[in-house]
C-alpha cells in the first residue's frame, strides 16, 4: 500500500467516525434546544393565564373558554395527576386523527374558588420535521466538508510527497556500475532535502567501495595467474628430468593437479566478478532448442563414459534475448553437474518447453541445507571433490543476469534443476 493511500485511509476512517458520532450528538443538542424553546413558550402562556381567569365570572364562561382554546385542558385538581415539570406524551391529533407527540405543562390555579389543573400543550410534529430538515442539511454539510477535506488533503499530500517519489524513483532506477544522474535540485522540504543529500553521500561511498573492490578482484585474479603459470611451467620442466623417482613423479602430479584446480578456481572467480559487474551484452537471439541440443551433443561423451543416457524428448523451441556464450555456460554447468552426481548407468532427462528447461537426474538427497546449494564454497567438502564449489553459483548468477529463475527440487529420489525463462516479479 502506498503511503498516500495509507494516510488517506486513516483520514477517511477517522473522519467517518467523527461524522457518525456527531449525528446523534447533534440531534440530541438540537432536540434539547427545541424542547427548551417549547417549554418557554408554554411557560409564557401559563404566565398570561391569570389575566384570563379574572374574566371568568361563571361556570358557563369557564366552559366557553375550555371549548374555544383547544391547546389546553382544564380539570379539577388531583394531586396524583399533577406533574409540576414539563413532559412529553402522545395524543391523537383531531385534524389528522393520528398519534403525535405533544409537550405538556401543568399549572395549579384557582378558578371560581375551586382548585383546577390547567394543562398547556403544543404539538411537536413541526418541531420533529424541522429537526429532520436541519439534520439532513447538517449531514450534507458534513459530507461536503468531508469530501473537500479529502480532496484538499490528497492534493496537498501529492505535492508534499512528490520530491520523495522522485528520490524513490531514482533509487529504483539506480545501477551501481552505470552512470546515474543524481537529484541536484534543492527541495522545499528540509527533511526530504536532508534525505536526498544523505542518500547521495551514501551512494558516493558505495560507488567508491565498489570500484576499489572491483579493481582489487580483477588485479588479484590477473596477478595470481602469472605465478600459477610459472609454477606449472617449472613443474613441466621438472617432470622431464630423467632422474625422477616414481614417488617424486606422483608428488609432482599431485601438485600439478592442485595448481590446475587453483587456476580453474581463479578463472571462475574472475568470471563471477565480471558477471556481478555486468560486463556482458545481452543482445543475442538465443535459440533454446538449438543451444540445448548442441550442449547435449558436446557433452554426450562425458555421459557415455559413465554408461549414462541423455534423454531429450519432445522439446519445444523458443527464442530468448540474452548472451549466447553465457547461456551456453549455464547449460554446460547444469548438464555436467547432472552427469557428475548421477550413478553409473542412470538416465538423465532434459525437458525443454517454451517457458522452462529442466534437468532431472537420479541421486541421493543433499547432505547439506538446500539454501546453500547455489552459494559459493558453502557445500560439504567431499574427500574427492569433483569441482571447485563455484559451478552452481555461476549458474545461478548467469540465470539472474538474464532475468531467469533457477531453482532446485528433490522429488521421487531425483534432483530437478529448473530454469524458468519468465522470472516471476518480486513483490
Give a written overview of the molecule.
This is histidine kinase. Its EC number is 2.7.13.3. It catalyses: ATP + protein L-histidine = ADP + protein N-phospho-L-histidine. The chain is α+β, with helices and mostly antiparallel strands. It folds into 3 domains: 3-145, no CATH class; 190-276, Helix Hairpins, CATH 1.10.287; 284-420, Histidine kinase-like ATPase, C-terminal domain (Heat Shock Protein 90, 2-Layer Sandwich), CATH 3.30.565. It has 8 helices and 11 strands. A 5-stranded mixed sheet has the order 6-8-9-11-10. It has a 4-stranded antiparallel sheet with strand order 1-4-3-2. A two-stranded antiparallel sheet has the order 5-7. Helix 5 (246-276) runs parallel beside helix 8 and helix 6 runs parallel beside helix 7. The model is unreliable at 380-385 (pLDDT under 50).
Amino acid at each position: 500500500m502506498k503511503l498516500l493511500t495509507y494516510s488517506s485511509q486513516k483520514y477517511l476512517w477517522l473522519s467517518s467516525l467523527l461524522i457518525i458520532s456527531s449525528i446523534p450528538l447533534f440531534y440530541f443538542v438540537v432536540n434539547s434546544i427545541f424542547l427548551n424553546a417549547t417549554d418557554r413558550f408554554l411557560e409564557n402562556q401559563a404566565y398570561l393565564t391569570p389575566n384570563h381567569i379574572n374574566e371568568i365570572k361563571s361556570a358557563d364562561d369557564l366552559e366557553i373558554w375550555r371549548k374555544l382554546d383547544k391547546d389546553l385542558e382544564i380539570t379539577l385538581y388531583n394531586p396524583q395527576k399533577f406533574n409540576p415539570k414539563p413532559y412529553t406524551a402522545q395524543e391523537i391529533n383531531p385534524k389528522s386523527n393520528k398519534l403525535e407527540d405533544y409537550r405538556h405543562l401543568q399549572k395549579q390555579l384557582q378558578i371560581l374558588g375551586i382548585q383546577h389543573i390547567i394543562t398547556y400543550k403544543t404539538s411537536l410534529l413541526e418541531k420533529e420535521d424541522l429537526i429532520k430538515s436541519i439534520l439532513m442539511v447538517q449531514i450534507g454539510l458534513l459530507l461536503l466538508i468531508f469530501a473537500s477535506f479529502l480532496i484538499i488533503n490528497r492534493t496537498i499530500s501529492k505535492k508534499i510527497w512528490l520530491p520523495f517519489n522522485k528520490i524513490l524513483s531514482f533509487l529504483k532506477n539506480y545501477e551501481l556500475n552505470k552512470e546515474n544522474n543524481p537529484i541536484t535540485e534543492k527541495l522545499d522540504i528540509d527533511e526530504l532535502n536532508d534525505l536526498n543529500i544523505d542518500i547521495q553521500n551514501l551512494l558516493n561511498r558505495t560507488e567508491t567501495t565498489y570500484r576499489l573492490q572491483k579493481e582489487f578482484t580483477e588485479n588479484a585474479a590477473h596477478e595470481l595467474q602469472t605465478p600459477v603459470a610459472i609454477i606449472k611451467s617449472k613443474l613441466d620442466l621438472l617432470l622431464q628430468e630423467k632422474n625422477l623417482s616414481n614417488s617424486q613423479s606422483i608428488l609432482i602430479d599431485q601438485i600439478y593437479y592442485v595448481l590446475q584446480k587453483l587456476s580453474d578456481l581463479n578463472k571462475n572467480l574472475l568470471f563471477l566478478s565480471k558477471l556481478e559487474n555486468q560486463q556482458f551484452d545481452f543482445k543475442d537471439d538465443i535459440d533454446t532448442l538449438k543451444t540445448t541440443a548442441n550442449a547435449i551433443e558436446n557433452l554426450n561423451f562425458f555421459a557415455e563414459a559413465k554408461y549414462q543416457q541423455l534423454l531429450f524428448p519432445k522439446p519445444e523451441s523458443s527464442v530468448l534475448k540474452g548472451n549466447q556464450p553465457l547461456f551456453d555456460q549455464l547449460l554446460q554447468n547444469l548438464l555436467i553437474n547432472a552427469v557428475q552426481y548421477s550413478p553409473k548407468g542412470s538416465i538423465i532427462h532434459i525437458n525443454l518447453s517454451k517457458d522452462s528447461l529442466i534437468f532431472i537426474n537420479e541421486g541421493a538427497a543433499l547432505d547439506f541445507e538446500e539454501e546453500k546449494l547455489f552459494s559459493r564454497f558453502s557445500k560439504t567438502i567431499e574427500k574427492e571433490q569433483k569441482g571447485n564449489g563455484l559451478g552452481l553459483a555461476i549458474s545461478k548468477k548467469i540465470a539472474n543476469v538474464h532475468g531467469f529463475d533457477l531453482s532446485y527440487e528433490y522429488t521421487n529420489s531425483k534432483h530437478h534443476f529448473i530454469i524458468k525463462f519468465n522470472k516471476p516479479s518480486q513483490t
